Amino acid sequence: MARANKTKYAILGLLSLKPASGYDIKKIVDESIGFFWNENFGHIYPILARMEKEGLVRKLAKESGDRKARNVYALTARGEREFLEWLGEPADVTPHRNELLLKLFFGRRIDRGAVEAILAEQRRKNQELLEIYGGVARHIDEVGTPEAPYWRFTLDYGIRIARMHVEWCDETLKALKRLSSSKKEKRS
Amino acid sequence: MARANKTKYAILGLLSLKPASGYDIKKIVDESIGFFWNENFGHIYPILARMEKEGLVRKLAKESGDRKARNVYALTARGEREFLEWLGEPADVTPHRNELLLKLFFGRRIDRGAVEAILAEQRRKNQELLEIYGGVARHIDEVGTPEAPYWRFTLDYGIRIARMHVEWCDETLKALKRLSSSKKEKRS
DNA sequence: GCGCCCATGTAACTAGTTACATGATTCA
DNA sequence: TGAATCATGTAACTAGTTACATGGGCGC
Q1: What percent of chain B clears pLDDT 70, i.e. is strictly above it?
Q2: Which 24-43 positions of B have CB less than 7 A from strand D?
Q3: Are B105 and A14 in contact (CB under 8 A)?
Q4: What are the residues whose beta carbons fall under 8 Å from the beta carbon of B173, sequence distance 6 or more?
């Protein structure tokens, strides 16, 4: 049920908002969905070419200026259909492969201080994210386009997850301290 | 700084707990860290072979029974060193590529009901996870091995994230309803 | 003229998935 | 005897990353 080639759907989605070049796509990804998505040129260009062959996207005529070899793509009807089909399907759960948890799972193999350092660093980074997100939220609320509520939902998700990280780090750090002290008590 | 080939470190970590075969590794992953990690045979076997060539793991002598071609691997000193080195480094933030958020970002392109269905399904699956985790928590608390606290930390993370999902789904569903009603008001 | 951003692309590689082939053991 | 599980592995593939090559346009 879950589909592979997520890059394809991300590109179809962005093109469904407005026509864009490969370069644009990369920029839009970085600037607007960068906190939960990434793409790179080495993948975007070949995939655009393939999608054109498959009739999902088409190259628009060069802009009047024609100043450069800018290949601007737009969705075709088939591309639109395929995008909407994917969009209506339920999304995967199971965000697999969490390296932080993998490290923590093996945490007993290093000294407590090292584990604490990892958690502290994680907490710091997420606190940082929270501050950035605050600014983004203000920005979204200002624009007020019809898409804005949906963008706001994704941002809320990001905020909640960062907050959850901070809280979990705090709790885990506390629990580690308790671990240490109960060890000491046993020794005495 | 962030290292690729996460499978390698997962395998080194598991072997650091006790020697195991490729088959064992797959089973351990599924049964104990399956909620945040996955591996498959087609990757495990080649990578074990490669690590043996690199001197990170070594094949133990066949067990006395010798009943079968079971290749049991153990860490070498070098493997141990490499594992600990990785373990001490801070973990990545940025859990990239969240398909749920990608869909939601484009949510305005489908009707409200379809978005609600996606969220409801997501909520349901996470509620389900929460129940499973409850059982796992009891299990961990019973065993009481020295590793148990660390395993408990990873599980707490899973619980928090599932809870966060449920809450966020609820809030987002509410917000969607508000969106609908404000549209209607404007129309009247 | 130099550095920076725009812009497209290819090549080489690594990681990871899926499907398949093979055969032993265990137990109902 | 036949299904389930144990056990190893290969082949073919897809996705995704990194590094590189190339060149135009713009502003200082």
Answers
A1: 91
A2: 24, 27, 41-42
A3: no
A4: B116, B119, B120, B123
Strand order in the sheet with A72-75: A20-21, A72-75, A57-59
From B89, B86, B16, select the one nearest B57 (Cα to Cα): B16
Q: What is the mean pLDDT of residues A122-130?
A: 96
User: Taking a C-beta distance cutoff of 8 angstroms, is the pair A22, A82 a contact?
Assistant: no
Cα separation, B109 vs A16, in Å, equals: 9
For residue A104, which of A185, A162, A175 has the smallest C-alpha distance? A175
* Strand ranges inside B43-158, DSSP E: 57-59, 72-75
- The rounded distance, in Å, linking the Cα atoms of A95 and B53 is 32
CA A164/CA B31 separation, integer angstroms: 25
Place of tokens 């079971």: B70
- In this prediction the pTM is 0.92
Q: Over the stretch A84-123, which tens digit does the pLDDT of each residue have?
A: 999 999 998 876 899 999 999 999 999 999 999 999 999 9
Tokens of A168: 């979990």
- pLDDT tens, B65-76? 445 679 999 999
Smallest Cα–Cα separation from A130: which of A161, A89, A97, A174?
A161
Report the nucleotide nearest the CA of residue A46, measured to C1': C9
Q: Which two tokens stand for residue B66?
A: 């010798």
The C1' atom of D26 and the CA atom of A38 lie apart, in whole Å, by 29
Q: CA A167, CA B163: separation in Å to the nearest integer?
A: 13
Residue of B nearest to A86 (CA): B103
| Alpha-carbon gap: B69 to the closest alpha carbon of chain A (Å) | 29
